[in-house]
Specification:
Length: about 350
């Protein structure tokens, strides 16, 4: 494998596969933050220490024989072009922070892209497992196995009282961030989301956009994740999040059913108008594309549209991002050129041309 493999493989397994409740839950993610005991944290360490961390991870990879999750490829951030880093961010394989602020960072990625291990991000190691649908328990089990594997070779920074020590105090304890990406158009259309988000925040969870902190909820897609890592076990965090997500799924289904009963023809009209925009536009911006794709996905889920793959939103929300469009164009594009290519790609994927 090489960097080109991950750049050219447009659709990750979590995008194309179906999981439990995948009509509403697009993906489940577990992230574990860990640090080496003998090195300063990335917020303070030197470039030499950063290089030593990467070297240590290379030695672990080369000596462990750990292949349960397939071959892992080490990609160094400092050797990438800006566009290549942007594509990896859009595929959720690395974080914006690693791409922008970590010239001595790296990432280990499995061939199916379900597992990525970021190195020298905000912490020395961030283990990420990304599964389709609502599979928090499965993702947590996988992350735990990888964590145990690494701990056999690395002495973690750990305190008997506080747990795993991290650069940011909000991650101290388990070091666990569990998140679920959800498509919630019903709650948006019925305007229930405005009362639900504050209630979720009061439960110690946070609601963010598609690319995490500071990002916008494009296409009615939201990330729900835990805020508290200290004083709770990993199992408790996962269970609490799953409980809230299950309620959100129920509320989203109820809102869709209410729309079917009270505004069915208006909803069908909205879906097909958006379908018409996507299948006929010759130029389309990111926000408009995301909004129309959300409507079309809702139409697929509610049975209005039957001739389009069920995972179309997952795929096109990634494929139509600026980095991907420029990657496939072979170089930088002006905003207007990206909008033209986005429209053409959507028409092609919807099999209209």
């Amino acid at each position: 494998m090489s960097l080109e493999h991950f750049l050219n493989q447009a659709v990750s397994s979590w995008m194309s596969a179906e999981g439990p409740d995948s009509d509403i839950v697009l993906s489940s993610r577990i992230r574990l933050a860990r640090n080496f005991e003998d090195y300063k944290f990335p917020t303070l360490f030197s470039h030499e220490e950063a290089k030593k961390v990467i070297l240590s991870m290379e030695e672990v990879l080369g000596s462990s024989g750990f292949n349960k999750f397939g071959q892992m490829e080490l990609l160094k951030i400092g050797e990438m072009q800006p566009l290549q880093k942007r594509v990896l961010v859009e595929k959720h394989l690395i974080s914006p922070h690693l791409a922008e602020d970590s010239p001595y960072g790296a990432v280990l990625v499995t061939e199916n892209e379900e597992v990525s291990i970021m190195i020298n991000e905000e912490d020395h190691i961030r283990i990420q497992c990304l599964f389709p649908g609502l599979q928090l328990s499965e993702a947590l089990d996988t992350a735990g196995e990888i964590d145990d594997w690494l701990e056999g070779y690395i002495q973690y920074a750990f305190d008997e009282k506080y747990g795993y020590l991290t650069s940011c105090p909000t991650n101290v304890g388990t070091g666990l961030r569990a998140s679920v990406m959800m498509h919630l158009p019903g709650l948006i259309i019925t305007q229930q989301i405005n009362r639900i988000i504050p209630a979720i925040n009061q439960l110690g969870l946070v609601v963010r956009g598609i690319y995490g902190e500071g990002s916008e909820a494009l296409g009615n897609i939201f990330q729900i994740s835990n805020q508290i890592t200290l004083g709770k076990s990993e199992e408790d965090i996962g269970r609490d999040l799953k409980g809230v997500v299950s309620q959100l799924i129920s509320q989203e289904r109820s809102s869709r059913e209410a729309l079917r009963k009270t505004s069915n023809i208006q909803l069908e009209d909205r879906v097909y108008r958006s379908y018409g925009v996507l299948t006929n536009s010759r130029i389309i911006e990111t926000k408009e594309a995301a909004r129309c794709l959300s409507d079309v996905q809702l139409g697929i889920d509610m049975g209005f549209i039957n001739n389009i793959p069920k995972n179309i939103l997952n795929e096109l929300m990634i494929l139509t991002q600026p980095g991907f469009l420029q990657q496939y164009a072979g170089g930088p594009l002006r905003p207007n050129e990206r909008d033209i290519r986005r429209a053409a790609l959507i028409r092609e994927r919807l099999k209209m041309e």
